[in-house]
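Tutorial handout. Part one gives the primary structure; part two gives the three-dimensional structure as tokens.
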Amino acid sequence: MATEQVSPSVGDSVEQARELLTLDELTNRVGMSVRNVRFYTTKGLVPPPIRRGRSGYYSRDHVARLELVQELQGHGFTLSAIERYVAGIPADATPEDIALRRAMLAPWQVDQPVEMSRADLEKRVDRRLTRKDLDTLSALGIVSATGGDSYHVAVSQLSIGLGLLDLGFPLEAAKAASEIYTQHGSQIAHELYDVFRRMVWPVYQESGASPETIQAVVERLKPLSIASLVSAYEAGMDQTRRENIAARAKRSGDIR
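Part two.
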């Protein structure tokens, strides 16, 4: 459907006015019902339509924010969690900025989780899983409850988790490690996002690249980022081990 021509008002450029969409055009663009668009508007997840007389129109900002909501829903965010996430986005965030946030949200692992019932999961591992077993696997990030008796399972990591269960890996240690990963992972994510926003996007923006281009850039960088994190972790563990050995040797020498 062709975009309706809208006369620019004060503060609008001709190009901005040309890009405005009617409600029907917006719903076709994002694949969302009129009812849902209006619902998300009342919830404050997207701004109200731009008024031109009695008619309401929607901009690239509306499209970007609705696509972000869809992305969050796809990752299993509840409505309240989506509201909290969106509340942290500045009101003047550009569609490009929101596109970058979407790119950073997308899964960073090649393997996508597989949804299984508890019965299917136990059949897969050929053993009965106790509540403690499931809690440990959850803390390790291998399974996550999706409601009822269903789980998202990182199949490629399942055998590792079962091996840890067989070795009696403590649940509290798994929870403590999970907290460390969450805390530092969140910090890394915020800092990487800031790097992309300040140093990467402006370069592509100046060249006239689209938001889809920056998303493609982030997707290509993800494997390198993961490899870099793994290398940094391994180097850090080696350094910690050497420091601990040196500290023990020093204490032993001091006792003598």
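Part three, for discussion. The first helix runs from residue 14 to 18. The radius of gyration is 24 Å.
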